[in-house]
Design goal:
- It contains 23 helices and 20 strands.
- It is an alpha+beta fold and 632 residues long.
- It folds into two domains: 308 residues, 4-Layer Sandwich (Glutamine Phosphoribosylpyrophosphate, subunit 1, domain 1), CATH 3.60.20.10; 303 residues, 3-Layer(aba) Sandwich (Rossmann fold), CATH 3.40.50.2020.
- The protein has a seven-stranded antiparallel beta sheet with strand order 3-2-4-1-10-9-11, covered by helices on one side.
- A hairpin with a 4-residue loop joins strand 7 and strand 8.
- It is globular, with a radius of gyration of 27 Å.
- Bound molecules: 1-O-pyrophosphono-5-O-phosphono-alpha-D-ribofuranose (PRP).
Length: 632
């Protein structure tokens, strides 16, 4: 089996509803679509830096003219790479044929990528190969216009094997087991089916073959195709597709795990993985942008109609909270406030850890994502300080002088930028093998702002494997000689693997799991590991719906605090002098801060789809059997 491919990805779909001459007149260029695609993709580069791809379709072309273009790159800076190539191609054409310059019809006819429909994708290839074949969009070609299918997705299916077997049962011979291919072939199969049915219909109505073609395109029921294709999909997905003649769709999983936003007016329809991208690129307000309803698809017919159709029965809404904590850009109006709230809500625990001694404490953060929660933490600390000033003033009100008041008011919160990130990479999603070394060299430290009598409170958005802390942050912070280092995680302890698109596939990689194993050993409870293995093994061949997440029993004997303390101990190497404490967010606070994104399986083990329980079961067995394998 070829490696399943991970998809911590971003998508962008754009349909220009007017003729290209309209954009030339209004915005000065018929390349409007390409320019907007560049921005839509670049502003989602946080979602993928290993690969980028773009496909475009020209509507209503004559037979013999090319109408689908696709370009993909797995070079460093892949977004720049593909657009540099596109630009070069366009410029070559324009230089060789000056007559194209002011002629939109000729541009459309002769220059690739000048079309009305676009699909872009940015990709993280977090493990396995990062070959060009793994870069989206994927293409399924056919001589029949409406049988051409182009797909790109931000997704991960837990049951690729089963979906693959389904295809084989249908008589197909898929060329690989990668989930993108499987999903595309699934859609493709029902697309073919639908086309065949419609052709029969047209024939019965007396239409000639040639007359039938545009009729089929018009009547094609995309929702029906998606309903049939996605029936057995178990996973998190925002799946986008284009058909050769010009229909387009984006469908979202029934639990709303992966995000997808859209906007439309009379000039454009646009879909992206993140909302602020659309706001910025098209200068539209927050309120004008909608989320695709979980289990629905937004379908843009070739004639410009936009349909919102239900595809799957909705599941309880479990939008991924990790999008809010880490993955998405913090520029979204809601996400920004949520991250701040995460910082605020954890403050009482921080104050306790420093014995309310804000005077001898420096507050800081680990760049970049945690910067926003730092602002929230600082606001809460400021509130605490103000309360103290009020009490001081009231207590001294009989003897208050201007000087005394000045003394009280001059006390300030001490915030510093202590950690500096040298490389502009997201290390969390860097491939396992090269990560340790990278992390060790990614950060640097600011000297001269910490006194030996100080506590240093430093907030990070999440602690996953703990590499960032162990290999880099704690050691470097210790070089500043603080008395105590308090690491604050704006996310709760990550105890279970993810299987819906965030790369946390192995249990033994998670520091919370490792710490719990240590505790089990110390307390002579390690037999629980054997027991959980027996229970997991016994349900190995159960249908997904009957599998129980027994891994929860591993954590049950311990309080959160005990596990946190063990994590701190394990991440602190013997040469570190400061006392190190780690504080994690509670799951209850997470839900308070991010009320719309209640998906919390990596923290609680409560998976939103049945496949999740199978994955955690498999992940545990892999760990127990010493198999260095991914669980899906
Ligand atoms: O515990 P670990 O397994 O080391 O992973 C957690 C770290 O990874 C992320 O940083 P990243 O460099 O990806 O991104 P950022 O700059 O966007 O915060 C995250 O912000 C944590 O610092």
């Amino acid at each position: 089996m070829s490696d399943a491919i991970k998809h911590e990805c971003g998508i962008a779909l754009l349909r220009l509803k007017k003729p290209l001459s309209f954009y030339k007149e209004k915005y000065g260029s018929a390349f409007y679509g390409i320019q907007k695609m560049y921005l839509l993709m670049e502003k989602q580069h946080n979602r993928g830096q290993d690969g980028a791809g773009l496909a475009s379709i020209k509507l209503d072309v004559e037979p013999g003219e090319r109408y689908i273009s696709r370009i993909r790159s797995n070079q460093s800076q892949p977004i720049q790479d593909i657009f540099a190539q596109i630009n070069q191609r366009i410029n070559e054409e324009l230089t060789a044929h000056p007559e194209y310059n002011d002629n939109v019809d000729l541009q459309k006819q002769e220059i690739p990528y000048i079309g009305e429909l676009f699909l872009g994708h940015v990709r993280y290839g977090t493990f396995g190969k990062n070959s060009i074949e793994s870069v989206h969009p994927f293409l399924r070609q056919n001589n029949w216009m409406h049988r051409n299918l182009i797909v790109a997705g931000n997704f991960n299916m837990t049951n690729v094997k089963e979906l693959f077997d389904d295809l084989v049962r249908l008589g197909q011979h898929p060329k690989e087991m990668a989930d993108t291919v499987t999903v595309m072939e699934k859609i493709g199969h029902f697309l073919d089916d639908e086309v065949t049915d419609l052709y029969q219909q047209c024939k019965n109505e007396g239409l000639s073959k040639r007359e039938a073609s545009p009729e089929i395109a018009e009547r094609l029921d995309i929702a029906r195709i998606l309903r049939r294709a996605s029936k057995n999909w178990d996973g998190g997905y925002a799946m986008a597709g284009l058909l050769g003649h010009g229909d387009a769709f984006v469908t979202r999983d029934p639990a709303g795990i992966r995000p997808a936003f859209y906007y439309q007016d009379d000039e454009i329809v646009v879909v992206a993985s993140e909302r602020p991208v659309i706001q910025t690129v098209f200068n539209v307000p927050f309120e004008a942008i909608r989320e695709i309803t979980p289990g629905h698809a937004i379908i843009v017919k070739k004639d410009g109609r936009v349909l919102d159709e239900q595809i799957r029965e909705a599941l309880p809404l479990k939008a991924c909270s990790f999008e809010r904590i880490y993955f998405s850009r913090g520029s979204d109006a809601e996400i920004y406030q949520e991250r701040k709230e995460l910082g605020k809500l954890i403050m009482p625990a921080v104050l306790e850890a420093i014995g309310n001694d804000t005077d001898n404490t420096v507050f800081s953060y680990i760049p970049n994502t945690a910067e926003t929660s730092f602002y929230g933490m600082v606001e809460a600390a400021q509130d605490f300080l103000n309360q103290r000033k009020i009490s001081d003033i009231l207590a001294n009100k009989e003897v208050l002088t201007a000087e005394k008041l000045q003394d009280i008011l001059s006390v300030k919160l001490r915030t510093e930028k202590v950690a500096i990130k040298d490389a502009k990479l997201r290390t969390f999603i860097t491939e396992d093998s090269s990560r340790d070394d990278l992390v060790a060299h990614v950060y640097d430290v600011t000297y001269g702002v910490i006194k030996p009598s100080d506590n240093l409170v430093i907030i990070d958005d999440s602690i996953v494997r703990g590499t960032t802390l162990k290999k880099s942050i704690i050691k470097m912070m210790d070089r500043l000689h603080p008395k105590k280092i308090v690491i604050v995680s704006s996310a709760p302890q990550i105890r279970y693997p993810d299987c819906y698109g965030i790369d946390m596939a192995k249990l033994e990689g998670l520091i919370a799991f490792q710490a719990t194993l240590e505790l089990l050993k110390e307390r002579n409870l390690y037999h629980l590991v054997d027991e959980v293995y027996q229970k997991s093994k016994a349900q190995e061949n159960f249908p997904d719906s009957e599998v129980v997440n027994y891994v929860k029993e591993i954590y049950a004997p311990f309080t959160d605090q005990e596990i946190s303390d063990k994590i701190a101990e394990m991440l602190t190497s013997s040469d570190v002098n400061a006392e190190v404490k780690i504080i994690f967010q509670t799951v209850a606070n997470l839900h308070t801060a991010c009320p719309k994104n209640l998906g919390d399986w990596y923290f609680t083990g409560d998976y939103p789809t049945n496949g999740g329980n199978r994955v955690v079961n498999r992940a545990f067995m892999n760990f127990y059997e010493g198999k260095d394998a991914r669980a899906y």
